[in-house]
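For consistency, the fold was encoded as tokens, which produced the following:
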Amino acid sequence: MIEFHGMRLRESVAVEILRQVDWSATPVGAPAGWPDALKTALQLCMNSHFPMTLGWGPGLVTFYNDGYVPIMGSKHPAAFGRPALEVYAELGEFLSIRTQAILQHGEQFYDENALLMLDTGRGPVEAYFTFCYSPVADEGGRICGALSVATDTTASVLYQRRTDTVIALNETLAQHRWHDPVGPALARGLRGNADDFAQFALYGAGADGVLRALLSHPSDLAGDLAAGGAIQRAIAAARDSGGRIKVNRVDERRFVVTLTDDAAFGGDAFALAVQPADHVDARSGYQEFLRMAAEAVSNAVYRMLSDQQVYADVNRRLDQRERMYRLLFEHSQDGIFVCDGGSGFLMVNPGACRMLGYSEAELLALDRAEVMVDEDGTATRALAERSEHGRFTGVLKMRRRDGTEFVADLSSVAFLDPEAGEMRSLTLFRDATDRLRAQDRITAAARLEAVGQLTGGISHDFNNLLNVIIQGAEDLVGTVSGDAGESAELVLTAALQAAALTRQLLAFSRQQPLERRAVDVADTVAAVAEILRRGIGETVEVVIDVAPDTVAHVDPSLLQSAVLNLAINARDAMPGGGRLTIDGAVMELDEAASRELGIAPRDYVVLTVTDTGVGIAPEHLPRVIEPFFTTKPPGQGTGLGLSVVFGFAQQSGGTLQMRSELGSGTRVSLYLPSARQPPPAAMAAEAGEAPAVAGRRLLVVEDNDLLAAMLTRVLEGAGHQVTVCGSGEAALQQLDGPERYDLMITDIVLGAGMDGWTLAGRVQQRHPEMPVVTMSGYAPPAAGDPVGRPQLPTLQKPFRPKQVLALIQELLAS
């Protein structure tokens, strides 16, 4: 992390550009004058792993993070610091309307599958993104900016467009018979997708090798390729390889699809030349799409054959194809049904019967409205859209036979049945419950990450202030009496309680310092159980079942706190008594299970706390790990317990899983990394008895002036000489000077420049004889796991003066 005018920003390409821009020449002015609202929004944008952009001021001056750089394309890095209307001049009225609506009225916008042309080095290429724009207000509530999150939907848009093309080709060509001219129908089907089929031509070549152009759009494409011999070479190569359908690349932008099955085509061979529009990426799945389209085009080729015998052979192949379609229909895991022009079912596949819980006969006897939920009019709107546009793709609720409902991803297309002369509809659907659940997890994770970054930064600064408050309160407790003394006692008690709350916030944000080691989980749970049995009451039965040799690689004190937290929550959920069970064992998670939980595949200690209490309502279950959310009555809970346990599990490399049902209790499972063999024990900074030592030269490295002043007073009061440096670089210069120091105390987080770990490592290399003490109350996410860091005595913030004096006395005496 780096410090930039009061903001803590993750090091990245975008942040480096941010630091280099001459902001005084931009509408937002120099960073020293930026409002807090801009800084807060900018920290959220630049530290996010999602593609985000921030516009600020009347012209929406542009900021964006690393995830947004590919979306910027050739506009990067010049777009940084320029007004949005200049950066996106080509968007014109579209952007101007949204800019005014956001700044003047605080409106939000959601643009789904918006088309952008990205410069890939070979010219602009189409890309689709879904944008969510949100207004940002300053401290006075005035809208001053807009924050946008982008999601790349290119793959899904291209898939849908090309799937629709293949379906449209099949539908168009299916209306023709062998003796009908198929060229016009084929041209209509291909022109329906002007992006992937900007130019196309169809050729035929008999056994005599004579080449003829059957269809061309535009007309000069056929002559160009035929004259160059590309079509003849492609057909000859396909015949030599024996391939029925083969895709050949002619050059950077043109392809030839050959159909050469002599048995099917009566000795003829056919070739379809295709060139996509300039903005289509011809390398990204395009050739595979051509193979799919070739299956539809082959139907057109059959109808070009005028010989009755060949027609009979084509019918045989169509029968085979129909049989394959029937197999796909029968064995598809998705639900499929065909409806008539009204609301009745004509055909349903086993997948639909299985998902809806009906037999085929039962389902065919139902009305479509009996399985499609239309309480809010969604199904009615979907049918209207399909009637107007010929197709509908979206999310609908469906009802099973037992009355339960589920959300389904559904795609429906209308088509004309040529034999009946009536409109039909083909609908495919699948259960979207798992997909939506995963999507909710991703959204919740992003929200918790943003809150975690904010609370972590605030807690770091608050810890420094608490140290000063605790020291001042202790001084007053020892020197004043009466009402003033009682007030000093209250201030000290409140400060210590605030320190405990700060540790909880750091635990939730996954930024608390950890001392990981191999911990026997059975011993930890047994110790907690003794505490519980004494204080939990006789109405609750405590059952412990933790497998022996269950060893986790975690911080032991935080593990004990987590188990105690979960057990107390379970007790509170059983006011009338019940059973509290704590069990644990080692489990190996494979790829599928770890992907479901969002953690790496490996061995985990799974510690589960189960109660038989009141349970949690389904609408509250997804929110119980959010900070300050609680289902307890006012005054009976802070809402930090589960969020702290969740933060501890994630920072340890595991996760938390919760299941609950109203009236049947709750089951919370902690997944923690297993330690099959205990790792080397880390040094612990413990204060012991040591002879008094005074008159030593001490170097204090701390960028917070108040905390530095407090430490100076405490240490000088113990008879030491103290020098204070505000950065790691200044400390190294001081140590390289003529003065000699007996001990150095350094904070871990030092703002801009090197951090405390780096400073300590360099000091140990240059002055190995000098003791080094670190101070920490905050472990930034970018710091990662402390493997390989110097093992040093550490003072956990906020600390009391006697702790620092005792530790320094011990180190100096030894």
The longest helix spans residues 433-479. Residues 634-639, 677-690, 781-788 have pLDDT under 50 and may be disordered. The radius of gyration is 35 Å.
